[in-house]
Automatic annotation (TrEMBL), chain A:
This is Lactate utilization protein C. Residues 118-214 form the LUD domain. Signal peptide: none annotated. The lineage of its organism: Bacteria, Pseudomonadati, Pseudomonadota, Betaproteobacteria, Rhodocyclales. It holds the Pfam family LUD_dom. SUPFAM superfamilies: NagB/RpiA/CoA transferase-like (SSF100950).
From TrEMBL, chain B:
InterPro entries: 4Fe4S_Fe-S-bd (IPR017896), 4Fe4S_Fe_S_CS (IPR017900), FTHF_cligase-like_sf (IPR024185), Helical_ferredxn (IPR009051), LUD_dom (IPR003741), LutB/LldF (IPR004452), LutB_C (IPR024569), NagB/RpiA_transferase-like (IPR037171). Keywords: 4Fe-4S, Electron transport, Iron, Iron-sulfur, Metal-binding, Repeat, Transport. PROSITE patterns: 4FE4S_FER_1 (PS00198), 4FE4S_FER_2 (PS51379). This is Iron-sulfur cluster-binding protein.
Amino acid sequence: MNARDHILGRIRAALGRTERSREAARAEVKATFDARTAGPHPLFDADLAARFRREAERMSSTIDEVAALADVPAAVARYLDARALSRRGVVWPALAGLDWAGAGLAMETRAAGDMDLVGVTGCFCAIAETGTLMTCSGPRTPAATSLLPETHVAVVPMSRIVPAMEEAWALARSEIGELPRAVNFISGPSRTGDIEMTIVLGAHGPYRVHLVLVRGE
Amino acid sequence: MRSQAMFFKARAGDKLADRQLQANLGKAKSRFVEGRAQAVVDYDAAPGADFEALRDAASAIRDRVLANLDVWLETFEDKARARGAEVLYARDGAEICRLVVDIARRHGVTKAAKSKSMLSEEAGLNEALAAAGIEPVETDLGEYILQINDNEPPSHIIAPVFHKSKEEVAELFARTHHTPKKDDIAGMAREAREVLREHFMSAEMGISGANFLIAETGSAALVTNEGNGRMVTTLPKVHVVVTGIEKLVPTLEDFSTLMRLLPRSATGQRISNYVSVLTGVKGEGDLDGPEHLYVILVDNGRASLVGTEFEPMLRCIRCGACMNHCPVYQSVGGHAYGWVYPGPMGSVLTPLYTGIENALDLPHASTLCNQCGVVCPVKIPLPELLRKLREKQVDLKLRPWRERLALRLWGWVAARPALYGFAARTAVRYLNRRAGGTDRIRALRAVPDWTAGRDLAAPEGRTFRELYAERVGHEGRTKR
């Protein structure tokens, strides 16, 4: 007997599975998928943007705010210069249309590599409950851009801030249908507490995450 | 991993006498406890939030899957296959190793970058890979430290080097990396980052566990703070997920509920830095992601718990809260437990997965104080399960005959109230005399191990039943 039949057979025996109960179980699976009941969670009906900012800062992200998408390159340049960081980097193809060169930045539209110091991404949406970015991988939104560089800058349209993960899933279902290969929830720079439970920022991913909130979007 | 759980008593003794370990444990142990407590208070402060309701909902989600585990597994398989994943099953650790080595050979893999996986510890996967000429590289900082320290086993399921001081790590790094010894933790973390970055870029295969499998979408969810989980599932051309059959949750909403509990219970975080929901292989036009995805669903003892009194243990989401809060774990650390899983959850799982006769001490390595049960995010009644394992040991005649005889005798006396009252009175008078007017008994021959480590508090006078009878009398009721 192969491993699959062996394991499933043991589970079925333990559950006393019959053809009838199997049908009932399948019906329950379908009902569960149809209902998609959200569990108990806090209510954030007030100012989502304020909540998002507060939680993101708590997770060690830094935050800037601009009026329109066209203002983003200048804000990114300001941030990089203030910290004496490189003006070169990689940017999501989805954001290639912004005037990066006009802000004095050398942003390349390609997959991020090991040597890239700055990665600029957008996000699918952002979650107020935990100050989290949700990114969906795809040809125009590669996953590694937010991972390999030491500095990650993300553009967050304020209209895309949702209360919690549940609303983010609902948005994904209605706008893209099937989940992309990788949905990444990112909450601040990478960190480790493995040595003496002492938190150090910048483990394998970025040392810093900077969010540029866009009001007009 | 070969279990050393039968030597718990001796190993625990050694650990208690290990001054370095005791100092390290003393430094670390309160952080997780305080972190979780604060996280619960903060969560409950938000309008509409109730941490207890969250625990109830989470255990219901886990139970719902376990009640129809076969059908949920089939559902997951269908969804995952439809997205290009190959779903495989493994009965035991040896089968995991065989499958992973086969996959590695099929794709010409020479190096595998690994994100932390306790199942890989169960299987001894690193040894099997190395024996097949494939270099396994642990990339979680804690696991990496253990690997370069001659493959030392982890002592905690989410903080593998809980037992080590930074000085010990600094020396290990200087020795292994041939670099000057560092004294700051940030410097050590950067050094490991640089070493491991090269491995991430060159490994042809990534191996990870899964914190959850999502039936609705056929996805594997991975939670890390360091970002190594993202690295090993994004960069190599092959990704292998090795995970237990019990990790399934029905929907993305259920996953969201569990994600409110996991980081808070584990580290006291509101959310972990990276939560990845991974579905299928690299798509058309994608710039990154694996071309081949394998999901290995592992039994290794889990299926035998389904439908039994121990089934609630399969709810476990591996947060580590039970060990963080366990006075026994806090005193002896994780290595004393002798297998992959320490603390209360380990004391239940080790006998169930490796044989009840191979871990006789573990169900007794608990005061049944229920700290673990109170903090468990999925409400596993850990003390009750430990007690059931103790009963099983007695039923299977695995306890020494003296102990069994004593228990039987006690049971016989306890069922006879008058005799019990007499015996209790006699014992109290005797212990009183032994204390010789003080409130402590230094040594008692009947329980030498117990009084070797501490004094026995002497009874203050009369038995509970005597005092109770007197009180009822005072209140004017009729004495029987």
